[in-house]
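chain below, 443 aa
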Amino acid sequence: MRDDEPRTLDRDKAVSIPGIPGSAPGSAPAPGPDSLPAPLPETAALPVWTRRLVLAGLVLAALNLRPAVTSLGPLMKEVRAGLGMSGAVAGFLTSVPALCFALFGIAAPRLARRFGAGAVVCAGMAGIATGLLLRPFASGTVLFLAASAVALAGIAVSNILMPVIVKRYFPDRVGAMTGLYSMALSLGTAAAAAATVPLTSAMGHGWRLGLGVWAALAVVAIVPWLGLVRDRSSAARPAPAGSGPATDGNTGRIIRSRTAWALACFFGLQATAAYVTMGWMPQIFRDAGLSAGTAGALLAVTMVMGVPLSFALPSLAGRMRHQGPLVVVLALFGLAGYTGLWLAPAGAPWVWALLLGIANCAFPLALTMVGMRSRTGAGVVRLSAFAQSTGYLISIPGPILVGALYQHSGGWDLPIALMAALMVPQIVVGVLAGRNRYIEDEL
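prediction:
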């Protein structure tokens, strides 16, 4: 579908959705995820308590999707000393999240079809709690990585299924609900970055207890999903009549879709920037002479920028026919932040953290585009699994290379220059992924 082609909808079957411009009877809904056709009968008939339970589950799950990662960055120096890690191994450690997200995320759609999405997310929360509880007891690098992998496996399957849950239970509010859980994800990310060092100091038992305390949040997140374990309804339902050609989400191999590849590459490059930021930015500031607490607070500023922007950005993206301009703007903020880190990391650290925080909002934008580039729930399942799994595979070398360059050069000039250079291809593939296309039309 070209950008200038109208979306193919049956005008006689258009449904009025309160609060959505252009959805009056007899007119095609305005483009964007918030103007999808009205919920199918099985979704519309869901009890109010079920939707409220899903809403609570989404928020609590999202709060747990990053603390396992961002709690580690501010304590990386202590963890390296305690476990005897080299710079290259520490770089690999910062790539482990992407590796686990790619490997375990591939299994999420199959697990969801067999057990139900609610059951899989519930198991994911249990995996996060288990991994975070075991990690403080690791006596060496291998055991630490194994415990981390358990937690990250839980994060991986939940990552993939969040857009699916939204499409399944809130098909008429995809943009708003994506913004809500993206905001909660950013809040959890920032909280772990800001609070881990103070908690570690307050408890007085070193970095191990400071990392393990985040398991409590994951235990709480299990509770609402227990009520959804028996919900076996499929997210992969047929699209309503008149929703356009090639509406079967299982038609064709997704690797034939250029839009899917563009979205996967965009996801991978933004993930590279995000995991380098979460894993190495505190170390950059500490090497510039700032304290561990200040470095953690700066990472928290970077992450907390996603709280308001992750809520607003998906809704804004949903009202645009082409999300390319948003891709470019976010990348320019990233380039400005990297320039500041390269020239004078301690000169205006709060400004650099703020700029990189805005740039990192490419993540909720990517999630929103996953929901917008498919017509059906089945398509969202496939596209979410492909874009995230492939994207995380693409992101694996970045943090490792940054760690190796840091150890080889003894400074941060080369690693920061690499990250700034990667913003260029991120803009290119992001603009391609932001075009008004559906993967079903390309299959």
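Residues 1-44, 234-250 have pLDDT under 50 and may be disordered. The two ends are 11 Å apart (CA to CA).
thats it, cya
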